From TrEMBL:
Pfam families the UniProt entry points to: FAD_binding_3 (PF01494)
Keyword Cell division applies: no
Family label: Belongs to the paxM FAD-dependent monooxygenase family.
Species for this entry: Aspergillus nanangensis
Keywords: FAD, Flavoprotein, Monooxygenase, Oxidoreductase
Name used for this protein in its record: FAD-binding domain-containing protein
Domain FAD-binding: 10-363
Amino acid sequence: MPSRTDSPLNVAVIGAGLGGLSAAVALRRQGHQVTVYERYDFAGEVGASLSAASNGSRFLESWGVDVKAAKPVILKKLIMHEWASGTVQNEYGLGDYKAKFGTEYNNFHRIDIHKELIKSAFEAPGEGPQCTLNVNHKATSLDADAGTIQFENGTVATADLIVAADGIRSLSRSLIGITPDFEMSTSCCYRCIIGADKLRELGLEDYINNEAIEYWGGFGIDKIVMSPCSNGEVVSCYCFYPAKHNNLRDDGWNISATPQQLVDTFPDLDPRMRTLMLNAEDIKMWRLYRHQPYPYWVKGRVCLLGDAAHPMMPDQSQGSCMAFEDAGALGLIFDRTFREKYTVAEGLGLYEKLRKPRATRVQAASFRAREDLNERIGWSSGADKPGKLTIEEVCGYNMQGHLEELINSL
Ligand SMILES: Cc1cc2nc3c(=O)[nH]c(=O)nc-3n(C[C@H](O)[C@H](O)[C@H](O)COP(=O)(O)OP(=O)(O)OC[C@H]3O[C@@H](n4cnc5c(N)ncnc54)[C@H](O)[C@@H]3O)c2cc1C
């Protein structure tokens, strides 16, 4: 590791979600002083799965995050079921995934990977100075040129670089002059989990043992996406349905539903899956939005990251992976010797050039995949339809090479 060639940056990260924590870890490792500001007394994560394809897992590994401690299930295949009978219609084996793309296809419980990122950011072992966490700090105002943030509790912070990772409803985004162009999706989603013991009791243990992401539907709005996580102790489902079905206008992560409401949403579904639904726990509604790409991501000393920059439909399972990539990009750009190459402003310009086209492409493909499973990476190949997003393009991405090309082209 080369030593610093100049003073480290004082970095402020707004938001301690998966994106903000990743940025904190990536920048800490380059010797920068990072402070994370979170509006709540602690950033929570929801009880659902999160698949980290190799383009995300690669960064987690390179940052020394204890991926094993986050109890992933290593995904081996994608399985497509017939909606009404559950009969397997198609399988896509991921057999040589690690050999091809360098890491496993990890499926985490979101809470587990959030916990490991917290350790990597704020605990002493690990490269670079420990980051500082300030909870109950809701950012309410920003001066992008001066690098100042004001918080609801009356405090003010100043930083050389501000990473705004405050999620899909980002206030920072508006504070740097972006008015998001978005609409409520015609799709809505219930998520739920079920424990392995319960599945065994119901005779549904193959849902754990398959080590797969399993789909029902996906051609049209209705789709069930199921996968095991937490060392196979939990199975998590995302159940997409037409928003007009219950026309819920409420928002947030915590709108609960009963098993009966869930099962009644899918009257013609495979009876085995309906049995799972009737025994599911922690059923919550997740409202979906379609955001158009924003005109810019950077202003003065502020950059947007994660869902604040590129909220997307969940149908490529790439939202967090794109946030991990954003954070990886900041770590590569603001490395220990960046001042020999460019200023902070030029570095942020590079960040936008590197990240925006790729994340925008994945965002567009996520929207197409909302109602067409053939657009989902793994099920798709560039040969079927020119221009399609492919698993090779997403999982085989070499960010370092891309960055070098960009720097050479300047
Ligand atoms: C149904 C569904 C399934 C998904 N599945 C996957 C998947 O399998 N794989 C995948 O890669 N991605 C998946 N995603 C996407 C992924 O969840 C998101 O892209 C990711 O969590 C975004 O992280 P973030 O840190 O940018 O935002 P968030 O997780 O929203 O974090 C934002 C943080 O900022 C804080 N905050 C907000 N405003 C302020 C403020 N003013 N001041 C201070 N703090 C503030 C919040 O409290 C929060 O802690 C899925 C999404 C959905 C909806």
